[in-house]
Specification:
alpha/beta, Rossmann fold, 2 domains, three-stranded antiparallel beta sheet, 31% helix, globular, AB_hydrolase_1, ABHD4, monoacylglycerol lipase activity, AB_hydrolase_fold
Length: 445
């Protein structure tokens, strides 16, 4: 009885923190007039749900329960999304998979905003946390949706994407997203691109917008459950019994099982193949063991890969120390009871473009609250994310960015002045049913 009373009486207000000097942004007001406001004022007016109370479902009262339900819950009948997949061959021989929805978008105007999504550790477009937002966001406006397009960028080897080069992906490798954005912005040149990302993908997206600064092809970004300081969060995860033996080993097992599916594609005497062979031979590896044996070698391209150690990889790839370089609106939401991410940089290095939000509960990518009906749940996170996407997609007016022009060379789409990157579309477009996950992998992480 006492724990129930504590659950009911606790205040569940989100901490929203802005730097002292908020960025000045242009916004559309009534009658299509444009005015300048501080980003803080813009968000307070356009995203009221960010300040609303989030009370977790009574039977999911803490971060462990929220996280485990995200992993083990049955979401197969909820938020169904159908995608059309486009495979991109990258200049280094690798392949990424772009899953577009709606499948038939011919009725949408050319300037319809596009939500560009990066998934979590070993996930893909099928993840429940992805579909929970994309299913309603891509519904027509008259049905209560935003009426937007969306595209999920599936990392190499994830969600059925083939591995065609001696490399996978990691928290610090941003070039695959960069090249995917070449293609998306070329295919839809009039559409604003709105970033939405989860967990490991959130770290990649944060680093991308920091590296690009004012030249980011994303107009805005929303990052959920970002792991930020990789070394600190890995250390804190390993410091507890449940952290080491449930979460870290669960993620390590996912990564090893994913690697096993693709190890045969690597040339036997390649350094990545040797690292893969040693990695899949590990017994009950934690995520840091996987990174020490494989990610430091096969998680990105040279330079800067390979790294001497997992800690060197963590130092390079962390996103908490690049927040000061971001020059577009970025909303970051974490949960204070997230058992996977316990170190969150709420000061955002004083960058006025960044809004940091910390819910008191919600676990890792959970944020489940009670819905109508006994035992029914919904995700609180949908409301503030919806408001953010609408506000930055339709009301925020961005100064014309000075992107490097795109051109085609030997069949590859490239940016002028950058020879190492390029992509081209492969033949064939498969229809992907978003609720079909991958066997042998725990979803939700």
């Amino acid at each position: 009885m006492g724990s129930f009373f504590n659950w009911w009486s606790t205040r569940y207000t989100t901490e929203v923190r802005y730097p002292k000097e908020s960025a000045l942004v242009a916004t559309k007001e009534q009658h299509s007039n444009t005015t300048s406001v501080f980003l803080r004022d813009f968000v307070e007016r356009r995203c009221p749900s960010l300040y609303s109370e989030f009370r977790p479902a009574w039977w999911l009262p803490n971060g462990h329960m929220q996280t485990l339900y995200c992993v083990l819950g049955d979401f197969s009948a909820r938020d169904k999304v159908v995608y059309k997949r486009t495979l991109l061959r990258l200049l280094d021989g690798g392949t990424v998979g772009l899953d577009f929805t709606p499948v038939d978008d011919s009725h949408l105007p050319s300037d319809t905003p596009i939500i560009v999504v990066l998934h979590g550790l070993t996930g893909g477009s099928y993840e429940s946390y992805v579909r929970a937002i994309l299913s309603p966001a891509c519904m027509p406006v008259h049905q209560g949706g935003l009426g937007y397009r969306a595209v999920v960028v599936n990392f190499r080897g994830c969600a059925g994407v083939p591995v065609t080069s001696p490399q996978l992906y990691s928290a610090g490798h941003t070039d695959d997203l960069r090249q995917a954005l070449f293609y998306i912005s070329h295919r839809y040149p009039e559409a604003p691109l709105l970033g939405l990302s989860f967990s490991l993908g959130a770290n990649v997206m944060t680093r991308y917008v920091a590296e690009e600064g004012e030249h980011s092809r994303l107009k805005s970004a929303c990052v959920l459950g970002c792991p930020w300081n990789l070394a600190a969060n890995a250390s804190k995860l390993l410091a507890t019994h449940i952290g080491r033996h449930v979460y870290s080993k669960g993620m390590g097992r996912n990564l090893v099982n994913l690697l096993k599916r693709h190890v045969g594609t690597f040339a036997p005497d390649h350094e990545v193949a040797k690292a893969a062979a040693a990695t899949i031979a590990l017994t009950k590896p934690t995520i840091d063991m996987f990174d020490e044996h494989f990610t430091k070698i096969g998680g990105g391209s040279s330079p800067p890969w390979p790294f001497a150690s997992a800690n060197d990889y963590y130092e390079y790839s962390s996103s908490h120390n690049v927040l000061n370089k971001i020059k577009i609106p970025l909303l970051a939401i974490n949960a204070a009871d997230d058992p996977v991410v316990q170190d969150v940089p709420m000061d955002a290095e004083g960058n006025g473009w960044v809004i940091m939000a910390l819910t008191p509960c919600g676990g890792h990518l959970g944020w489940f609250e009670s819905d109508e009906g006994w035992g029914q749940i919904k995700r609180w996170i949908k409301r503030p994310v919806f408001e953010w996407l609408r506000a930055t997609g339709e009301d925020f007016v961005r100064s014309p960015p000075h992107w490097r022009p795109l051109h085609e060379e030997d069949g590859f789409l490239k940016e002028v002045g950058i020879d190492r990157l390029g992509c081209k579309e492969l033949d064939g477009n498969d229809i992907i049913v978003g609720t079909e996950g991958e066997a042998g992998l725990l979803a939700g992480l």
